[in-house]
Write a structure and sequence with these properties.
With 379 residues, the protein is an alpha+beta fold. The chain contains 12 helices and 10 strands. The structure holds flavin-adenine dinucleotide.
Protein backbone atom coordinates (compact mmCIF):
# COMPACT_ATOMS: atom_id res chain seq x y z
CA UNK A 1 0.00 0.00 0.00
CA UNK A 2 1.95 3.01 -1.19
CA UNK A 3 -0.96 5.39 -1.53
CA UNK A 4 -3.94 5.84 0.72
CA UNK A 5 -7.31 5.20 -0.92
CA UNK A 6 -9.08 8.36 -2.11
CA UNK A 7 -11.76 8.32 0.63
CA UNK A 8 -9.12 7.89 3.34
CA UNK A 9 -7.15 10.81 1.91
CA UNK A 10 -10.28 12.97 1.98
CA UNK A 11 -10.81 12.10 5.64
CA UNK A 12 -7.15 12.88 6.31
CA UNK A 13 -7.56 16.32 4.67
CA UNK A 14 -10.69 17.01 6.72
CA UNK A 15 -8.93 15.96 9.95
CA UNK A 16 -5.78 17.96 9.20
CA UNK A 17 -7.80 21.04 8.32
CA UNK A 18 -9.79 20.68 11.56
CA UNK A 19 -6.61 20.10 13.55
CA UNK A 20 -4.90 23.23 12.24
CA UNK A 21 -7.97 25.48 12.59
CA UNK A 22 -9.67 24.19 15.73
CA UNK A 23 -6.98 22.43 17.78
CA UNK A 24 -3.59 24.04 17.15
CA UNK A 25 -4.60 27.58 18.24
CA UNK A 26 -5.92 26.17 21.56
CA UNK A 27 -3.13 23.72 22.35
CA UNK A 28 -1.28 26.08 24.65
CA UNK A 29 -4.45 27.10 26.48
CA UNK A 30 -5.43 23.52 27.35
CA UNK A 31 -1.84 22.62 28.20
CA UNK A 32 -1.74 25.43 30.74
CA UNK A 33 -5.27 25.22 32.12
CA UNK A 34 -5.49 21.40 32.40
CA UNK A 35 -9.16 21.75 31.30
CA UNK A 36 -10.97 19.05 29.37
CA UNK A 37 -11.55 20.40 25.81
CA UNK A 38 -15.36 20.25 25.67
CA UNK A 39 -15.71 22.99 23.06
CA UNK A 40 -13.34 21.27 20.65
CA UNK A 41 -15.00 17.92 21.36
CA UNK A 42 -18.42 19.30 20.34
CA UNK A 43 -16.99 20.89 17.19
CA UNK A 44 -15.28 17.62 16.27
CA UNK A 45 -18.58 15.80 16.81
CA UNK A 46 -20.32 18.20 14.46
CA UNK A 47 -17.93 17.39 11.64
CA UNK A 48 -17.89 13.66 12.41
CA UNK A 49 -14.36 13.32 13.77
CA UNK A 50 -15.16 11.62 17.08
CA UNK A 51 -16.82 8.27 17.82
CA UNK A 52 -15.72 7.35 14.32
CA UNK A 53 -15.49 3.59 14.92
CA UNK A 54 -19.19 3.32 15.74
CA UNK A 55 -20.87 1.43 12.88
CA UNK A 56 -23.33 3.27 10.63
CA UNK A 57 -26.33 1.27 11.90
CA UNK A 58 -25.73 2.82 15.34
CA UNK A 59 -25.28 6.36 14.03
CA UNK A 60 -21.51 6.46 13.56
CA UNK A 61 -19.48 6.50 10.37
CA UNK A 62 -18.09 2.99 10.80
CA UNK A 63 -14.53 4.13 10.18
CA UNK A 64 -11.86 1.52 9.55
CA UNK A 65 -8.81 1.37 11.82
CA UNK A 66 -6.79 2.90 8.97
CA UNK A 67 -9.22 5.81 8.86
CA UNK A 68 -8.90 6.19 12.62
CA UNK A 69 -5.13 6.33 12.12
CA UNK A 70 -5.20 9.27 9.72
CA UNK A 71 -7.52 11.19 12.05
CA UNK A 72 -5.36 10.43 15.11
CA UNK A 73 -2.13 11.40 13.38
CA UNK A 74 -3.59 14.68 12.13
CA UNK A 75 -5.09 15.69 15.45
CA UNK A 76 -2.02 14.69 17.46
CA UNK A 77 0.10 16.79 15.11
CA UNK A 78 -1.75 19.81 16.49
CA UNK A 79 -2.03 18.65 20.12
CA UNK A 80 -1.74 15.08 21.31
CA UNK A 81 -3.38 15.89 24.64
CA UNK A 82 -6.53 17.13 22.93
CA UNK A 83 -6.37 14.24 20.46
CA UNK A 84 -6.22 11.69 23.30
CA UNK A 85 -9.14 13.34 25.09
CA UNK A 86 -11.27 13.37 21.93
CA UNK A 87 -10.47 9.89 20.66
CA UNK A 88 -10.74 8.04 23.98
CA UNK A 89 -14.40 7.14 23.39
CA UNK A 90 -13.20 4.92 20.58
CA UNK A 91 -11.03 2.92 22.99
CA UNK A 92 -13.69 2.80 25.69
CA UNK A 93 -16.36 1.36 23.43
CA UNK A 94 -14.17 -1.25 21.75
CA UNK A 95 -15.16 -3.92 24.34
CA UNK A 96 -18.81 -3.13 23.57
CA UNK A 97 -18.23 -3.29 19.80
CA UNK A 98 -16.20 -6.50 20.08
CA UNK A 99 -18.29 -8.44 22.61
CA UNK A 100 -21.53 -6.56 23.23
CA UNK A 101 -24.95 -7.84 22.20
CA UNK A 102 -27.51 -5.90 20.18
CA UNK A 103 -29.39 -4.69 23.26
CA UNK A 104 -26.23 -3.38 24.93
CA UNK A 105 -25.20 -1.53 21.77
CA UNK A 106 -28.66 -0.02 21.28
CA UNK A 107 -28.63 1.14 24.90
CA UNK A 108 -25.15 2.65 25.25
CA UNK A 109 -23.94 3.81 21.83
CA UNK A 110 -26.60 6.57 21.64
CA UNK A 111 -25.09 8.05 24.82
CA UNK A 112 -22.10 8.94 22.67
CA UNK A 113 -23.64 9.50 19.24
CA UNK A 114 -26.81 11.39 20.24
CA UNK A 115 -26.05 12.80 23.68
CA UNK A 116 -22.39 13.74 23.22
CA UNK A 117 -21.31 11.90 26.34
CA UNK A 118 -17.91 10.45 27.09
CA UNK A 119 -16.85 6.94 28.11
CA UNK A 120 -13.66 5.64 29.69
CA UNK A 121 -11.69 2.39 29.80
CA UNK A 122 -10.90 0.96 33.24
CA UNK A 123 -8.25 -1.74 33.21
CA UNK A 124 -5.24 -0.43 35.16
CA UNK A 125 -5.14 -0.61 38.97
CA UNK A 126 -2.71 0.86 41.51
CA UNK A 127 -1.01 -2.55 41.83
CA UNK A 128 -1.48 -3.92 38.30
CA UNK A 129 -0.74 -2.21 34.98
CA UNK A 130 1.41 -4.30 32.67
CA UNK A 131 0.35 -7.43 34.53
CA UNK A 132 -3.31 -7.38 33.51
CA UNK A 133 -3.94 -10.83 35.02
CA UNK A 134 -2.93 -9.37 38.39
CA UNK A 135 -5.91 -7.02 38.72
CA UNK A 136 -7.67 -7.25 42.06
CA UNK A 137 -11.09 -5.72 41.34
CA UNK A 138 -13.83 -8.25 41.91
CA UNK A 139 -17.32 -8.72 40.51
CA UNK A 140 -19.03 -11.42 42.54
CA UNK A 141 -22.33 -12.80 41.29
CA UNK A 142 -25.33 -12.23 43.56
CA UNK A 143 -28.66 -13.14 41.99
CA UNK A 144 -29.22 -11.03 38.88
CA UNK A 145 -26.35 -8.69 39.73
CA UNK A 146 -22.61 -8.61 40.19
CA UNK A 147 -21.23 -6.78 43.22
CA UNK A 148 -18.29 -4.76 41.95
CA UNK A 149 -15.45 -3.69 44.25
CA UNK A 150 -12.04 -2.24 43.45
CA UNK A 151 -10.13 0.81 42.35
CA UNK A 152 -8.76 1.77 38.97
CA UNK A 153 -6.10 4.35 38.25
CA UNK A 154 -4.87 6.49 35.37
CA UNK A 155 -8.30 6.39 33.75
CA UNK A 156 -8.12 8.81 30.83
CA UNK A 157 -11.29 10.90 30.49
CA UNK A 158 -12.40 9.39 33.83
CA UNK A 159 -13.18 12.86 35.24
CA UNK A 160 -15.77 13.53 32.52
CA UNK A 161 -16.99 10.04 31.63
CA UNK A 162 -20.64 9.01 31.96
CA UNK A 163 -19.94 5.29 31.79
CA UNK A 164 -17.00 2.96 32.05
CA UNK A 165 -15.85 -0.33 30.56
CA UNK A 166 -14.56 -2.04 33.71
CA UNK A 167 -12.47 -5.20 33.96
CA UNK A 168 -12.84 -7.28 37.14
CA UNK A 169 -12.47 -10.86 38.35
CA UNK A 170 -15.49 -13.02 39.07
CA UNK A 171 -13.21 -15.33 41.08
CA UNK A 172 -10.63 -13.36 43.08
CA UNK A 173 -8.32 -16.38 43.48
CA UNK A 174 -8.18 -17.26 39.79
CA UNK A 175 -5.98 -15.88 37.00
CA UNK A 176 -6.74 -14.17 33.71
CA UNK A 177 -9.54 -16.61 32.83
CA UNK A 178 -11.69 -15.14 35.59
CA UNK A 179 -11.63 -11.59 34.20
CA UNK A 180 -14.90 -10.23 32.81
CA UNK A 181 -15.77 -6.84 31.36
CA UNK A 182 -18.79 -4.78 32.49
CA UNK A 183 -20.40 -1.52 31.47
CA UNK A 184 -20.83 0.58 34.60
CA UNK A 185 -22.70 3.88 34.79
CA UNK A 186 -21.11 6.71 36.69
CA UNK A 187 -24.34 7.62 38.50
CA UNK A 188 -24.78 4.22 40.09
CA UNK A 189 -24.43 4.10 43.89
CA UNK A 190 -20.89 3.20 44.94
CA UNK A 191 -19.12 4.70 41.90
CA UNK A 192 -16.80 7.64 42.58
CA UNK A 193 -13.72 9.28 41.13
CA UNK A 194 -10.71 11.26 42.34
CA UNK A 195 -9.74 14.70 41.11
CA UNK A 196 -7.72 14.72 37.87
CA UNK A 197 -4.18 13.47 38.50
CA UNK A 198 -1.35 15.96 38.01
CA UNK A 199 0.87 14.77 35.19
CA UNK A 200 3.83 15.59 32.98
CA UNK A 201 2.12 16.10 29.64
CA UNK A 202 -1.05 15.69 27.56
CA UNK A 203 -2.76 17.97 30.07
CA UNK A 204 -6.03 18.18 28.13
CA UNK A 205 -6.49 14.43 28.49
CA UNK A 206 -7.46 14.40 32.14
CA UNK A 207 -6.98 11.12 34.00
CA UNK A 208 -8.13 10.08 37.47
CA UNK A 209 -8.72 7.20 39.82
CA UNK A 210 -12.13 5.54 39.74
CA UNK A 211 -13.49 3.67 42.76
CA UNK A 212 -16.17 0.97 42.93
CA UNK A 213 -17.63 0.14 46.32
CA UNK A 214 -20.29 -2.55 46.42
CA UNK A 215 -21.68 -1.37 43.09
CA UNK A 216 -24.64 -3.46 41.93
CA UNK A 217 -24.01 -4.15 38.25
CA UNK A 218 -26.90 -5.91 36.46
CA UNK A 219 -25.77 -9.19 34.88
CA UNK A 220 -27.02 -7.89 31.51
CA UNK A 221 -24.21 -5.31 31.64
CA UNK A 222 -21.56 -8.02 31.35
CA UNK A 223 -19.97 -8.02 27.89
CA UNK A 224 -19.64 -11.52 26.43
CA UNK A 225 -19.48 -14.59 28.62
CA UNK A 226 -18.14 -14.70 32.15
CA UNK A 227 -14.34 -15.04 31.88
CA UNK A 228 -14.11 -13.45 28.41
CA UNK A 229 -12.56 -10.22 29.74
CA UNK A 230 -8.90 -10.99 29.14
CA UNK A 231 -9.56 -12.08 25.55
CA UNK A 232 -11.64 -8.94 24.99
CA UNK A 233 -8.82 -6.79 26.39
CA UNK A 234 -6.27 -8.35 24.04
CA UNK A 235 -8.57 -7.90 21.02
CA UNK A 236 -9.02 -4.27 22.02
CA UNK A 237 -5.25 -3.75 21.88
CA UNK A 238 -5.01 -5.18 18.35
CA UNK A 239 -7.52 -2.56 17.21
CA UNK A 240 -6.39 0.35 19.35
CA UNK A 241 -2.60 0.15 19.07
CA UNK A 242 -2.38 1.15 15.38
CA UNK A 243 -4.29 4.36 16.20
CA UNK A 244 -2.13 5.12 19.23
CA UNK A 245 0.95 4.51 17.07
CA UNK A 246 -0.41 6.94 14.49
CA UNK A 247 -0.98 9.55 17.20
CA UNK A 248 2.64 9.13 18.34
CA UNK A 249 3.58 9.59 14.72
CA UNK A 250 1.71 12.90 14.68
CA UNK A 251 3.95 14.11 17.50
CA UNK A 252 7.08 12.76 15.75
CA UNK A 253 6.11 14.54 12.51
CA UNK A 254 5.35 17.81 14.27
CA UNK A 255 8.75 17.66 16.02
CA UNK A 256 10.41 17.08 12.65
CA UNK A 257 8.59 19.99 10.98
CA UNK A 258 9.35 22.38 13.83
CA UNK A 259 13.02 21.36 13.85
CA UNK A 260 13.41 21.65 10.07
CA UNK A 261 11.87 25.13 10.09
CA UNK A 262 13.96 26.35 13.02
CA UNK A 263 17.24 24.86 11.75
CA UNK A 264 16.71 26.56 8.39
CA UNK A 265 16.25 29.98 10.01
CA UNK A 266 18.58 29.95 13.00
CA UNK A 267 22.15 30.94 12.20
CA UNK A 268 25.39 30.24 14.04
CA UNK A 269 28.96 30.80 12.88
CA UNK A 270 27.53 32.74 9.91
CA UNK A 271 25.27 30.06 8.46
CA UNK A 272 21.97 28.25 9.10
CA UNK A 273 22.47 25.52 11.69
CA UNK A 274 20.93 22.99 9.26
CA UNK A 275 24.21 23.25 7.30
CA UNK A 276 26.09 21.63 10.16
CA UNK A 277 26.12 17.89 9.75
CA UNK A 278 25.62 17.39 13.49
CA UNK A 279 22.23 19.11 13.19
CA UNK A 280 21.36 18.04 9.64
CA UNK A 281 21.80 14.35 10.33
CA UNK A 282 19.50 14.66 13.35
CA UNK A 283 16.86 16.00 10.96
CA UNK A 284 17.46 13.15 8.49
CA UNK A 285 17.07 10.55 11.23
CA UNK A 286 13.88 12.22 12.43
CA UNK A 287 12.45 12.01 8.91
CA UNK A 288 13.39 8.32 8.62
CA UNK A 289 11.57 7.58 11.89
CA UNK A 290 8.40 9.28 10.69
CA UNK A 291 8.41 7.45 7.40
CA UNK A 292 9.22 4.03 8.90
CA UNK A 293 6.70 4.51 11.71
CA UNK A 294 3.96 5.35 9.27
CA UNK A 295 4.52 2.16 7.31
CA UNK A 296 4.35 0.09 10.49
CA UNK A 297 1.25 1.81 11.89
CA UNK A 298 -0.73 1.90 8.67
CA UNK A 299 0.18 -1.68 7.72
CA UNK A 300 -0.94 -2.92 11.10
CA UNK A 301 -4.22 -1.02 10.68
CA UNK A 302 -4.69 -2.43 7.20
CA UNK A 303 -4.11 -5.95 8.52
CA UNK A 304 -6.73 -5.74 11.26
CA UNK A 305 -9.17 -4.09 8.83
CA UNK A 306 -8.70 -7.03 6.50
CA UNK A 307 -9.15 -9.71 9.13
CA UNK A 308 -5.44 -10.54 9.32
CA UNK A 309 -4.00 -11.25 12.78
CA UNK A 310 -2.01 -8.11 13.64
CA UNK A 311 -0.87 -8.73 17.22
CA UNK A 312 2.80 -8.65 16.17
CA UNK A 313 2.56 -5.70 13.79
CA UNK A 314 0.49 -3.69 16.28
CA UNK A 315 3.13 -4.25 18.97
CA UNK A 316 5.91 -3.33 16.51
CA UNK A 317 4.09 -0.18 15.43
CA UNK A 318 3.35 0.86 19.01
CA UNK A 319 6.93 0.26 20.18
CA UNK A 320 8.53 1.96 17.18
CA UNK A 321 6.23 4.98 16.95
CA UNK A 322 6.37 5.63 20.70
CA UNK A 323 10.18 5.60 20.66
CA UNK A 324 10.15 7.73 17.49
CA UNK A 325 7.90 10.33 19.10
CA UNK A 326 10.13 10.58 22.16
CA UNK A 327 13.39 10.66 20.21
CA UNK A 328 12.12 13.19 17.66
CA UNK A 329 10.72 15.45 20.37
CA UNK A 330 13.96 15.24 22.38
CA UNK A 331 16.06 15.95 19.28
CA UNK A 332 13.79 18.84 18.31
CA UNK A 333 14.48 20.39 21.71
CA UNK A 334 18.21 19.91 21.02
CA UNK A 335 17.92 21.59 17.61
CA UNK A 336 16.19 24.56 19.26
CA UNK A 337 19.03 24.86 21.80
CA UNK A 338 18.11 27.06 24.77
CA UNK A 339 14.88 28.03 23.06
CA UNK A 340 13.90 24.37 23.01
CA UNK A 341 13.81 24.44 26.79
CA UNK A 342 11.50 27.44 26.82
CA UNK A 343 7.73 27.35 27.08
CA UNK A 344 7.69 30.17 24.51
CA UNK A 345 8.52 27.62 21.81
CA UNK A 346 6.43 24.57 20.87
CA UNK A 347 8.93 21.72 21.22
CA UNK A 348 9.11 21.70 25.04
CA UNK A 349 5.44 20.65 25.12
CA UNK A 350 6.06 18.02 22.45
CA UNK A 351 8.72 16.43 24.64
CA UNK A 352 6.41 16.30 27.68
CA UNK A 353 3.52 14.99 25.59
CA UNK A 354 5.58 12.35 23.78
CA UNK A 355 6.72 10.45 26.87
CA UNK A 356 3.34 8.87 27.57
CA UNK A 357 3.42 6.89 24.32
CA UNK A 358 6.18 4.71 25.79
CA UNK A 359 3.89 3.94 28.74
CA UNK A 360 0.16 3.76 28.02
CA UNK A 361 -1.57 1.07 25.95
CA UNK A 362 1.28 -1.21 27.05
CA UNK A 363 4.82 0.01 27.72
CA UNK A 364 7.58 -0.40 25.16
CA UNK A 365 8.93 -3.34 27.17
CA UNK A 366 5.53 -5.04 27.04
CA UNK A 367 5.43 -4.57 23.25
CA UNK A 368 8.89 -6.16 23.08
CA UNK A 369 7.61 -9.10 25.13
CA UNK A 370 4.66 -9.53 22.75
CA UNK A 371 6.93 -9.41 19.70
CA UNK A 372 9.23 -12.02 21.26
CA UNK A 373 6.27 -14.25 22.09
CA UNK A 374 4.92 -13.89 18.56
CA UNK A 375 8.32 -14.74 17.04
CA UNK A 376 8.22 -18.12 18.75
CA UNK A 377 4.52 -18.56 18.09
CA UNK A 378 4.99 -18.36 14.33
CA UNK A 379 8.11 -20.57 14.20
C1 LIG B 1 -1.45 9.40 31.40
C2 LIG B 1 -1.88 7.98 31.48
C3 LIG B 1 -3.09 7.59 30.93
C4 LIG B 1 -3.52 6.25 31.03
N1 LIG B 1 -4.78 5.92 30.58
C5 LIG B 1 -5.28 4.69 30.90
C6 LIG B 1 -6.66 4.37 30.65
O1 LIG B 1 -7.42 5.17 30.10
N2 LIG B 1 -7.12 3.15 31.05
C7 LIG B 1 -6.32 2.22 31.66
O2 LIG B 1 -6.81 1.13 31.99
N3 LIG B 1 -5.00 2.50 31.90
C8 LIG B 1 -4.48 3.70 31.55
N4 LIG B 1 -3.16 4.00 31.81
C9 LIG B 1 -2.33 3.01 32.47
C10 LIG B 1 -1.21 2.47 31.62
O3 LIG B 1 -1.73 1.62 30.63
C11 LIG B 1 -0.20 1.79 32.56
O4 LIG B 1 0.44 2.81 33.30
C12 LIG B 1 0.81 0.95 31.80
O5 LIG B 1 0.20 -0.19 31.25
C13 LIG B 1 1.96 0.51 32.71
O6 LIG B 1 1.50 -0.06 33.88
P1 LIG B 1 2.07 0.44 35.30
O7 LIG B 1 2.00 1.92 35.34
O8 LIG B 1 1.39 -0.30 36.37
O9 LIG B 1 3.60 0.06 35.27
P2 LIG B 1 4.22 -1.35 35.70
O10 LIG B 1 3.45 -2.43 35.08
O11 LIG B 1 4.42 -1.36 37.16
O12 LIG B 1 5.65 -1.27 34.99
C14 LIG B 1 6.72 -0.51 35.54
C15 LIG B 1 7.94 -0.72 34.63
O13 LIG B 1 8.29 -2.12 34.60
C16 LIG B 1 8.31 -2.57 33.27
N5 LIG B 1 7.83 -3.96 33.21
C17 LIG B 1 6.72 -4.48 33.80
N6 LIG B 1 6.61 -5.77 33.52
C18 LIG B 1 7.65 -6.08 32.71
C19 LIG B 1 8.11 -7.28 32.06
N7 LIG B 1 7.45 -8.42 32.18
N8 LIG B 1 9.24 -7.21 31.32
C20 LIG B 1 9.93 -6.05 31.19
N9 LIG B 1 9.56 -4.90 31.79
C21 LIG B 1 8.44 -4.92 32.52
C22 LIG B 1 7.39 -1.64 32.48
O14 LIG B 1 7.72 -1.63 31.10
C23 LIG B 1 7.68 -0.32 33.18
O15 LIG B 1 8.85 0.24 32.64
C24 LIG B 1 -2.69 5.31 31.65
C25 LIG B 1 -1.44 5.70 32.18
C26 LIG B 1 -1.05 7.00 32.11
C27 LIG B 1 0.27 7.39 32.74
Amino acid sequence: MYELPEDVRMLQDLAMDFAMREILPWAEHYDESDEWPWEIFHKAREVGLVNVNIPEEYGGIGASVLEECVISESMAYACSGIQTALMLNQLAILPLLIAGNEEQKRLYLPWLVDDGKVAAYCMTEPDAGSDVAGIKSTALRKGDNYILNGSKTWITDGPVASFFAVFAKTDPDAGHNSISCFLVERDWPGVSASKPLKKMGQHAAQACQVFFENVEVPAENRLGEEGDGFKIGMKVFDKSRPGVSAAALGVARRALDEAVRYAGERTAFGQPISHFQGVGFMLSDMAIRVEAGRHLAYKSAWEVDNGIRNTMSAAMAKAFCAEAAMKNATDAVQVFGGNGYSKEFPVEKLMRDAKIYQIYEGTTQIQQMIILRELYRSS
